[in-house]
């Protein structure tokens, strides 16, 4: 069994390194940790190096280890993790704050529906003003999936 693995390693190191790179990348995607991206990239680089400049296995592992350490440290130094500022792009209602739209019908008791960005939304009118059908409104806040709007003059 070991002879077969050694034979495979000696004859096809490129594919073994690419398999390791793919496995590490799949684990990174599954976990989203950010720590396995650099070893995955390092394994891919070693795969290319093993194809272009054949080395023995210990040299390839040494190159992989050094590349992993260097890329991980460089990635942590130059690509710091930061939280995205601004609205969440996955929050369909939250991204509408500041957008303008049209009322679908006149608001009744301060509640109605508005048409914004190709979609109809439930809305609550801010203030005591009356809004007719087709009037322009602006989204000022979002509570759940209900928009708070104000009349635009």
UniProtKB/TrEMBL annotation:
Q: What is this protein called?
A: Membrane protein implicated in regulation of membrane protease activity
Q: Which GO terms describe its molecular function?
A: peptidase activity
**Topological relation to the membrane, as annotated:** Multi-pass membrane protein
Please tell me where this protein is predominantly located: membrane
- In what residue span(s) does the NfeD-like C-terminal domain sit? 94-150
The record's subcellular location field reads: Membrane
Q: Which domain of life is it from?
A: Bacteria
Which UniProt keywords are present, listed alphabetically? Hydrolase, Membrane, Protease, Transmembrane, Transmembrane helix
Query: What is the organism of origin for this protein?
Result: Caulobacter ginsengisoli
Q: Which GO terms describe its biological process?
A: proteolysis
Report whether Membrane shows up as a keyword of the record: yes
Residue stretches spanning the membrane: 12-30, 35-53, 59-79
**Which PANTHER family did the record assign?**
INNER MEMBRANE PROTEIN YBBJ
